[in-house]
Amino acid sequence: MSDDVDDLILDSLEDREAAEHAYRELLERAAEQAIEPRLHATARAVELLGDPQNSARVIHITGTNGKGSTARIVEALLRAHGLRTGMLTSPHLERVNERIVVDGQPVSDEAFARNWEDVKPFIELVDAQLEGKGERKLTFFEAFTVLAFAIFADAPVDVQILEVGMGGEWDSTNVAHADVAVFTPIALDHMNRLGSTIAAITATKAGILKPGSLAVSAAQEPLARGALDERAAELGITVQYEGESFRLDNTQIAVGGQMVSLTTAAKRHDDTALPLMGMHQSRNAALAVAAVEAFLGGGEQGIAEDVLADGFALATSPGRLEVIGNDPVVVVDAAHNPHAAAALVEGVQGWFGAERAQFVLGLLRGKDARGVLETLAPLVDTIVITESDSDRAMPAEDLARIAGEVLGEDAVILEPHLLEAVEIARERADDREHPVVVTGSITLLGDVMRFAREEMWIRS
């Protein structure tokens, strides 16, 4: 082996260790779920850094379900236009680098570590200022958002695609000014943080609207639409809604995904291949196209068909109706609330032709476990209740008790050890007629996907 190759391997190992050290330092902060309903802390940090969030235009995405998938389709379409993209999403499946994507690739270990060292002194200065006022220092998510903006400015990128962490109004991503604000379907979730009604939750999410923003939204239920329209009217903004300004015309199941036809304010797009499964993904795609057309030409110029095809071909949605194993078929999907569970049931029935499935389920505390189970019930043959190693995981015993009440004791198997739970479901499955569906929290899916790869039954 040449000295040059030795140096490359050494650099790679050093970069990995440096990135892991940076991540450990971030994890020493208040945990990701320790939300601070404030913007001034993040705003002060980016101000000291020269406001890197203003270094590129912004597409800002909020909602309850579909934010990550919509962000990834938007990012792919912009890349197909030749733009250099930066995308911030959360959470990650396997490595934290997945959350910060530059030009279609997770940020390198070298850039992650180097930018952290650059921003850390400024973050620590803000920490001291906050603690001097009796406030908590920057949380994990606040500091991570500052890091992402620094990485995008350093890259540099032409456009930033930002997925809101929670809510919108006081989410740390909201220090950026949305050129286009995108709203995926809004439902009840995080009610302890965002409010107990659809209207209250929507009002918080509508906080990403800024003077001069263009706004594009999925179809919303009346109370959500009313709250969104109220905020938009205050700013003189007209929201482009699905079903009015744009629509999904048709989708047909195809090898590896679906063929999608849609119409926007600017153009009709017929029969374009989308390599994602599930009707909800075709709706996400329609929303993404409308958002990109708003961003590039104010909604008056349609995306060229060859660019649309190239962009859709680049689109991925890890952990969303993703097939990771065959013999039997194993599908992973992050259905952590009833709305997402309904999309999962529709996807498994439509794309796999399955009337019943073997489920593995683990949720985080605070989620609507009963609502998720009631939604999954028509598709459940057997459900193996388990838990991830997250400190936020709902104890498997508690979830199994609720599952027994909803589905009947005979349909429920309790196996707290996740990997053994997956093997139990695989042994009970009959390939495509009874696929295995692993669902619930993202932390659970990441563990299963790593296990699948190690055991070599992951789909190649």
From TrEMBL:
Q: Provide the top EC class.
A: ligase
Tell me which InterPro entries the record gives: Folylpolyglutamate_synth, Mur-like_cat_sf, Mur_ligase_C, Mur_ligase_C_dom_sf, Mur_ligase_cen
Alphabetic keyword roster: ATP-binding, Ligase, Magnesium, Metal-binding, Nucleotide-binding
Enumerate the spans annotated as Mur ligase C-terminal domain: 319-441
Q: GO terms for molecular function, please?
A: ATP binding; dihydrofolate synthase activity; metal ion binding; tetrahydrofolylpolyglutamate synthase activity
Per UniProt, residues of the Mur ligase central domain are 61-292
Q: Which GO terms describe its cellular component?
A: cytoplasm
Q: Which reaction does it catalyse?
A: (6S)-5,6,7,8-tetrahydrofolyl-(gamma-L-Glu)(n) + L-glutamate + ATP = (6S)-5,6,7,8-tetrahydrofolyl-(gamma-L-Glu)(n+1) + ADP + phosphate + H(+)
- Does the entry feature the keyword Magnesium, yes or no? yes
Q: Which cofactor does it need?
A: Mg(2+)
The keyword Magnesium is assigned to this record:
yes
The membrane spanning regions, by residue number, are: none
Q: According to the lineage, what is the superkingdom?
A: Bacteria
What Enzyme Commission number(s) appear in the record? 6.3.2.17
Tell me its family. Answer: Belongs to the folylpolyglutamate synthase family.
- Which PANTHER family does this entry report, sorted A to Z? DIHYDROFOLATE SYNTHETASE-RELATED, FOLYLPOLYGLUTAMATE SYNTHASE-RELATED
Q: What is this protein called?
A: tetrahydrofolate synthase
**Which organism is this entry from?**
Candidatus Agrococcus pullicola
